[in-house]
Amino acid sequence: MSCEWGVGKPSPLTPPIYGSHTVSDDAGATMVEYALMVALIAVIALGAVTALGLDITAVFSDPALVDAF
Predict the structure, then answer these.
(1) With 90 as the cut, is the pLDDT of residue 15 above it?
(2) CB within 8 A of 61, min separation 6: which ones?
(3) How far apart are CA 67 and CA 69, in angstroms?
(4) SS3 of residue 37 by DSSP
(5) Could you tell me which residue, 17 or 51, shows the higher pLDDT?
(6) At residue 31, what are phi and psi to the nearest 5 degrees?
C-alpha cells in the first residue's frame, strides 16, 4: 500500500500544526551588526581626532605653512 503524499508530507485531512515551522529572520541581527560597526568606526575616528587634533591645529596655525598654501 503506497501513499501518494509521500513521507513527511501531510495529507489534506491532517490538521495543520502551528508553530512547527520557524521563520528565520536575520534582519534584526544584521542591523545590530551594522550598528556595532558604525559605533566602532565612530570610536576610532573620535580617538584619531583627539590624538591628532592639537598637532593638526599647530600645523595649520603656523604662519610659515599658511603662506605656503
Answers:
(1) no
(2) none
(3) 5
(4) helix
(5) 51
(6) -65, -40
Own/partner long-range contacts of 39-46 (Cβ < 8 Å, ≥24 apart): none
Q: Which amino acid is at 28?
A: G
Distance separating alpha carbons of residues 28 and 39, to the nearest angstrom: 17
Instruction: Tell me which residue has cell 591628532.
Output: 52
For residue 47, the model assigns a pLDDT of 93
Q: Are 59 and 65 in contact (CB under 8 A)?
A: yes
Three cell numbers, residue 69:
598654501
Furthest CA-CA distance within the chain = 97
C-alpha cell at 61: 596655525
